[in-house]
């Protein structure tokens, strides 16, 4: 798109919540703005209660939470970490940062999640962790993946950036791995600009996670009166957000039901209004298996070819509708080639043919009408 073209319907607008401004103002004026203040604690309590997890630590991003996961699983040079090729750079970068070799896996043709059937061929003596991504918040085949990781003694980490409130066979996404991560970036259902969380499902990792998040110090124990002085005890960095960032997030947590209901209505509407056109044009809509409950994070179209996708994208953009592609397969990225191995045709095909439609909590009926009208005007 050139700068001269006007975007009338953006790809994303961050969700909003009524209490954001009063909460952030209160946090700013409280005289205690650094991390782990009252709003951060309330966010942690919300997540542990909602997810039934032993611990949830707010971080400054999902990327940071993934880096904490790499430290907690003690990734070091020589280790191999299996990740899907069709994902965001952070899923792999967080582990490559500590010297892991990244082993890319292909995706399934239906959910676009990691293909669990490829895992037995990819696991070696050096495999330290498998990192799965629940694409669009639709669960991976967790029964198979959990069993494979348990049998092989490999850490399972869920990059659940898209999947807060998603469920697989009645169980919350993010509760299967030893660790899982969330994103609260502005594009996610609930957001605070930049933010994330580490969910710790193995209670034996909680103490070390707190230390890693607090610059390698036992400051959290000091605040709780468990030690007289705090000191440098392990690896770590500064992974905790300011309390006023948590205040903005808490406001959205408290309105999660309203936000989720609006997103469901939009998703259902896109599916209802686009199904006939998609069938006629041989375009695939998102697939949600019957045993998965999705959190309505995104809506995408899969075109029959790269050229039809690109023509549709250009047309929609020319009409002011910012439809966007998604991940470039990491195995084909410059850094992916340096730190990883594996090349996967399906990930490439999905990347070349998938187009995401504008999707945000407060999309108006008129905006949704316009998107549907322009998409269904397309003849491929
Ligand atoms: C699957 C996945 N993992 C990780 C991230 C990184 O999230 P953050 O921006 O919170 O670091 C993203 C970003 O959208 C993502 O899509």
What is the fold's blueprint, element by element?
Elements: H1 20-29, H2 38-51, E1 55-59, H3 62-72, E2 80-84, H4 89-96, E3 101-105, H5 119-122, E4 127-133, H6 142-152, E5 155-159, E6 167-168, E7 171-172, E8 179-183, E9 196-200, H7 206-213, H8 219-223, H9 243-254, H10 256-281, E10 292-293, E11 300-302, H11 306-318, H12 334-339, E12 340-341, H13 345-353, E13 354-356, H14 365-376
Parallel strand pairs: 2-3, 2-4, 3-12, 4-5, 5-8
Antiparallel strand pairs: 1-9, 6-7, 6-10, 8-9, 11-13
Helix pairs in contact: 1-9, 2-9, 3-4, 3-7, 10-14
Model description:
With 380 residues, the protein is α/β, with parallel strands linked by helices. The chain folds into two domains: 20-254, Aspartate Aminotransferase, domain 2 (3-Layer(aba) Sandwich), CATH 3.40.640; 256-376, Aspartate Aminotransferase, domain 1, CATH 3.90.1150.10. It has helices at 20-29, 38-51, 62-72, 89-96, 119-122, 142-152, 206-213, 219-223, 243-254, 256-281, 306-318, 334-339, 345-353, 365-376, and strands spanning 55-59, 80-84, 101-105, 127-133, 155-159, 167-168, 171-172, 179-183, 196-200, 292-293, 300-302, 340-341, 354-356. The strands form three sheets. Strands 1-9-8-5-4-2-3-12 form an eight-stranded mixed beta sheet, sandwiched between helices. It has a three-stranded antiparallel beta sheet with strand order 7-6-10, with no helix packed on it. A two-stranded antiparallel ribbon has the order 11-13. Helix 2 (38-51) crosses helix 9 and helix 10 runs parallel beside helix 14. The mean pLDDT is 97. Bound molecules: pyridoxal-5'-phosphate. Pyridoxal-5'-phosphate binds next to helix 3 and helix 4.
């Amino acid at each position: 798109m050139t700068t001269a073209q006007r975007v009338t319907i953006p790809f994303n607008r961050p969700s909003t919540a009524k209490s954001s401004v009063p909460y952030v103002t209160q946090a700013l004026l409280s005289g205690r703005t650094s991390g782990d203040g009252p709003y951060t604690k309330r966010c942690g309590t919300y997540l542990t209660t909602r997810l039934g997890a032993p611990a949830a630590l707010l971080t400054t991003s999902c990327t940071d939470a993934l880096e904490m996961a790499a430290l907690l699983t003690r990734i070091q040079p020589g280790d191999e970490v299996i990740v899907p090729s069709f994902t965001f750079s952070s899923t792999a970068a967080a582990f490559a940062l500590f010297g892991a070799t990244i082993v890319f896996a292909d995706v399934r043709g239906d959910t676009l999640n990691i293909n669990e059937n490829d895992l037995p061929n990819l696991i070696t003596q050096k495999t330290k962790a498998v990192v799965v991504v629940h694409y669009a918040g639709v669960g991976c085949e967790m029964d198979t993946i959990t069993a494979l990781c348990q049998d092989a003694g490999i850490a399972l980490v869920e990059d659940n950036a898209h999947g807060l409130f998603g469920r697989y066979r009645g169980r919350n996404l993010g509760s299967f791995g030893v660790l899982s991560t969330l994103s609260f970036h502005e594009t996610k259902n609930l957001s605070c600009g930049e933010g994330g969380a580490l969910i710790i499902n193995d209670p034996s990792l909680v103490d070390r996670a707190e230390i890693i998040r607090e610059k390698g110090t036992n400051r959290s124990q000091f605040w709780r009166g468990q030690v007289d002085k705090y000191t440098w005890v392990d690896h770590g960095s500064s992974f905790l957000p300011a309390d006023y960032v948590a205040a903005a997030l808490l406001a959205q947590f408290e309105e999660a039901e309203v936000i989720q209901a609006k997103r469901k209505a939009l998703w259902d509407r896109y599916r209802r209004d686009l199904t006939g056109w998609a069938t006629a044009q041989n375009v695939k809509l998102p697939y949600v298996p019957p045993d998965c409950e999705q959190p309505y994070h995104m809506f995408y179209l899969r075109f029959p070819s790269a050229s039809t996708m690109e023509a549709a994208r250009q047309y929609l953009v020319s009409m002011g509708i910012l439809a966007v592609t998604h991940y470039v397969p990491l195995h084909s990225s410059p850094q992916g080639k340096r730190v990883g191995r594996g090349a996967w045709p399906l990930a490439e095909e999905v990347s070349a043919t998938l187009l995401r439609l504008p999707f945000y909590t407060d999309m108006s009926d008129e905006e949704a009408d316009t998107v549907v009208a322009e998409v269904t005007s397309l003849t491929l």
